[in-house]
Amino acid sequence: MVFKKRLDYGFDAFSVSNVPRAPRSIRRRVRTKRTVDDNQICAFKLLASLAGKLLEEKSESSAVSNVSEGHGNVSIGKAVVKQEIEYDDKPLKTECVEHLSCKESVVASDWTTENSDNLKEFKHSENNAILKCTLAKMQSSYSEQTKGDLKFAICKDNVAYGSFHGDLEGCSPNFRELCDGIRDNGVKREREANGLESAPFTVANSCSLKDPLHLSMPFPAPINTDRDVKLPSCNDSVPNASFSRHRNSIKLGSRDDDENFSRFNKLSNRFMASRPPTRIEDQRVRKFLTSKYWKGAPELKDFENFRADGGIRPLHRKRKTYYNYDKCQYGTLYKRRKLFDHSSIVTSDGGIGSGSVFNSPEKVKNENKSSSVAMSHGGQQASHKSSDSHVKLSIKSFRIPELYIEVPESATVGSLKRTVMEAVTALLGGRIHVGVLFQGKKVRDDSRTLSQSGISSEDNLDALGFTLEPGPAIAPPPLCSEDHPLLLPCGAAPQNLTSTRTTPAMDTKIPDATADPPLLTNSEKATDSNYKHTSSQTDILTDQKLSESRALVLVPAMNVEALSVVPANQKIRKSELAQRRTRRPFSVSEVEALVQAVEELGTGRWRDVKLRAFENVDHRTYVDLKDKWKTLVHTAKISPQQRRGEPVPQELLDRVMTAHAYWSQYQAKQQGKHHIRTLRITASQADRNGVMVAI
DNA sequence: CTTAGGG
DNA sequence: CCCTAAG
């Protein structure tokens, strides 16, 4: 009855409904376009730097005088957070900073003008995303060539600076473009594209390109603690960081403010330079993280999206752009050093033991091409077997365990430094092993010869890879047990490790490609390897991942946890792990707006609803609105006693019901019409057929 | 990308 | 909110 009564007034408002929707092509133009962000690259680089650090440590294997104040200012993410990694005598500056920082600066300046509120909006997931994107990119690129057998590695340092120059035949043009773009065009293009030459931008730009260290320019202080800062402030003494399964990602900033990027997004869009992680992208990343996405190269195509030409625009997966091959075609200064052992090993200069992990910018300029780190795996790349029994290969990179660092935005810069420091130190402190991967499987038997292991034939060297693996000396992570019962504390005795395994004889058939069924289920997580008892858990976990995908060599998430170098806040980690957006209950006013919009537009045009009522509320996607409507309808149907959360005024619920009823009916009609139309067609065809038959 | 719907 | 199939 009540409903009936409402009908009268309710439907009046629905007249608008007949407004035809604009053609999609038009509508799309309105949409805010988001592009890949440079910061992602930065994250990549930071990671890379860490990797490089590892390499360095490995090679030097000497005591570190952790005293000097090598101050590499690495700007990470949109955070105007300068990260000072103090380590060793060698500043972690250089490459990492150069490129990205300028964006950082831009952002910063913009913030200053706009609103310091936005400071909190810097996001971390972006970093994650980029990393993955980049890596994925590599993989997908290579995949074109090698089909299943690819692996990539975290590139040490100069990824963006032409590290891959040496041998890119096997990689896709996009990848070249990536190199190329980053190398020379990124920033400039951005500027040109935007025609913006605001002073800060210019300054930042040039300065960053020339002297990374200048990047420590003053940023607006992160003020805003009044809103959305839900994390307890973290004091220096307790770095709130954690390693989680986020691969290769360094997270900085608060965790639950994804959406707050929106505003930032808009800001940065002005420069067409950066963009916040889209939900979609997040999802992609997440998907990517999901094991199934590591099964093989074909699945990685999503990530072709990534484009590295300064992050100006994303490459869409379907787009295949083949250009600029030459540009990326290196004046490869592949510095080769031959080590005459049993085999001749050609390493790029940046390889292990070279100690040139951290090139100075100048050095990079001249040598970066030689310090590529990615293990060539594109087949005909640098790997080939000489006519004699020597195996020649180049090591462009090592995989390293990823670091996942997370600190609340309320954490101080100092604590951030410390956190990173701890992470790196712990990692290095654990002693690093080099692992050999062949055809996606770890070759554990050190006594085997190369030929015995099958690492000899010309065509399979591309399936050879190396990894850096943390040694067993690493402290056990405090969080293994809770979230991942299967994870044993890192310090756990080897026996424990074995006990969870179900295939105790694996190591005897390691080179056997047939012995690697996908291990995707949880129960099998730790079952794959029967490594020597001296192996670290990490090894095991790594293997597990490898067996999932021999094509892609990636340190599995578990690995990180096993490493768990940095004390982590479990709660944070947990939520972060889920990568789920923070729940944002709709306020009454929001509901009102939603109802209003739906009344006018109907229930089948969520995008329009979004545009109409929530255009400036970036954290409300049309899917959100749709979902909210769904729940609203549900809420309206249930008794008030069963409702939870902030009570929605009955008046609104009534409107919801009304609108729902109306639009349901409307949709039904549409369907009916359509159906009828179809029927008519069918009928007429039948007639014709009938006639035909009759004739 | 959007919609629609299940989870 | 997330995920996905479809379009």
TrEMBL record:
Domain HTH myb-type: 578-637
SUPFAM superfamilies with a match to the protein in the record: Homeodomain-like (SSF46689), Ubiquitin-like (SSF54236)
Chain spans, region Disordered: 356-387, 500-536
Domain Ubiquitin-like: 391-461
Annotated CDD domains: SANT_TRF (cd11660)
Residue ranges with Polar residues bias: 369-384
Location of this chain's protein in the cell: Nucleus
Source organism superkingdom: Eukaryota
InterPro entries: Homeodomain-like_sf, Myb_dom, SANT/Myb, TPR1-6-like_ubiquitin, TRP_plant, Ubiquitin-like_dom, Ubiquitin-like_domsf
Main location: nucleus
Residue ranges annotated for the Myb-like domain, each copy included: 578-633
Keywords: DNA-binding, Nucleus
Family matches, as PROSITE patterns: HTH_MYB, MYB_LIKE, UBIQUITIN_2
Stored PANTHER family: TELOMERE-BINDING PROTEIN, PUTATIVE-RELATED, TELOMERIC REPEAT BINDING PROTEIN
Protein name listed in UniProt: Uncharacterized protein
Native source organism of the sequence: Hibiscus sabdariffa
